[in-house]
Amino acid sequence: MPIFSPDPIDIKILEALQANGRITNQELADQVGLSPSPCLRRVRHLESEGVISRYVALVDPEALDLNVTAFVRVRLDQQDDRHLEAFELAIAGFPEVMECYLMTGESDYQLRVLVRSLTRFEEFLRNSLTRVPGVANVTTSFALRPVIYKTALPTLDT
User: Fold this and answer.
1) Measured between alpha carbons, how far is 2 from 53 in angstroms, rounded to an integer?
2) pLDDT tens figures, 124-155
3) Tens digits of per-residue pLDDT, 117-129?
4) What is the CATH number of domain 8-48?
5) Is the per-residue pLDDT at 158 higher than 60?
6) Mean pLDDT across the stretch 68-73?
7) What is the mean pLDDT of residues 67-82?
8) Is 10 exposed, middle or buried (CB count within 10 Å of its CB: 0-12, 13-18, 19+)?
């Protein structure tokens, strides 16, 4: 995918939408200094270019009693494409896995897992993750509390 080069107005639009995805087009236009029609055209262009990929609601995990965040490092017994693909397909079906990254270094993958309790994490570990074929080693660290949590990407000064 080619890199998109936003101009200063695009950056203002992206910053405003990342802060509030439900802002009206009129409010957005006012914030970025455009009239509504050109503002909407720019938003549609950012969407069509894939810069804006979707709109979501951010839900507070504690409101749903999801209080345990675990960072899980997974090493596979083999790292060929077939085994990597099989692992990725398997964990995509686990709702507890919020993020998964293919890594360099000691582990093949790093997961961020969100569950209600340590008991639920143990169940996830024993009944789901370690049953995925090819999992050789799992190491877990638990988050005590978030220090920084951002959903908005940094925007570049142009």
Assistant:
1) 15
2) 999 999 999 999 999 999 999 999 999 999 87
3) 999 999 999 999 9
4) 1.10.10.10
5) no
6) 98
7) 97
8) buried
Nearest residue to 21 (alpha-carbon basis) of 54, 55, 58 = 55
Q: Mean of the per-residue pLDDT values for the chain?
A: 95
Does CATH place domain 61-142 in 3.40.50.2300?
no
Q: pTM for this one?
A: 0.87
Residues in the chain: 158
The residues spanned by each domain of the chain are 8-48, 61-142
Residue 54, both tokens = 């979707």
Give the span between the Cα atoms of 124 and 122, in whole angstroms. 5
Cross-strand pairs, 75: 137
Nearest partner of 121 among 67, 82, 157, judged by Cα: 67
Q: How far apart are the first and last CA of the chain?
A: 21
The CA–CA distances, whole Å, from 48 to 2, 29, 42, 65, 133 equal 13, 19, 10, 37, 39
Q: Which of 68, 70, 87, 71 is nearest to 79 (CA)?
A: 87
User: Which residues lie below 8 Å from residue 99, measured CB to CB, with a gap of 6+?
Assistant: 111, 112
